[in-house]
Design goal:
Blueprint lengths: L1 H14 L12 E9 L4 E9 H11 L10 H13 L1 E4 L9 E8 L2 E9 L6 E6 L10 E8 L2 E7 L5 E5 L3
Parallel strand pairs: 1-7
Antiparallel strand pairs: 1-2, 2-5, 3-6, 4-5, 6-9, 7-8
Length: 168
């Protein structure tokens, strides 16, 4: 019996070299903020690992966990994300974001927002708290892209509002 258990463990380790931890939350999300010179808008795309989003929706947020099959659940999750994300001028003037919708692609849930870009903006104050109220060790990475430059902000621990200094 011990030998069979050992062989099963070795077989699982060989087939899944990373172990079975792949089924657990990664607790990492990515947001991209893009200044679209063609439209004059600031476009925001939030990317969540589907497993994390479903777990948070079902276990912590009181949303039906079927984000694949339920547009209503995806919309509720998107509204949760939108309520925990904001951008503003360095002086604190909020840039009101419109929630455009969601998409599921390659194991990720995407949430899209946009707002008109102000004429002159040399920095952007960002707050990105989605899932940080669910898991204290959640890390949200935000890439701010404008004129070929990328500024990366990392929201972890006590990080609240971070400033991305922009060029161009």
């Amino acid at each position: 019996m011990i030998r069979r258990t050992f062989l099963t463990t070795v077989l699982i380790a060989a087939v899944f070299p990373g172990g079975v931890a792949f089924a657990h939350q990664q607790k990492v999300a990515l947001t991209e903020i893009l200044f679209n010179s063609r439209t004059g808008n600031i476009e925001v795309a939030h990317r969540f690992i589907m497993h994390d989003a479903e777990h948070a929706a079902r276990q912590e947020l009181g949303i039906d966990g079927d984000l694949y099959g339920s547009l209503e659940s995806r919309t509720a999750f998107a509204e949760y994300v939108a309520a925990r994300f904001s951008i503003a001028t360095p002086e604190g003037a909020a840039l009101p974001l419109s929630l455009l919708g969601t998409e599921i692609k390659d194991g990720y849930l995407w949430v899209y927002q946009e707002t008109p870009a102000p004429e002159a903006l040399d920095a952007l104050a960002v707050r990105c708290d989605a899932l940080r109220d669910v898991w204290p060790d959640q890390v949200n990475r935000v890439n701010v892209k404008r004129s070929g430059e990328v500024r990366t902000l990392i929201f972890a621990g006590a990080a609240d509002v971070l400033l991305a200094v922009l060029k161009g």
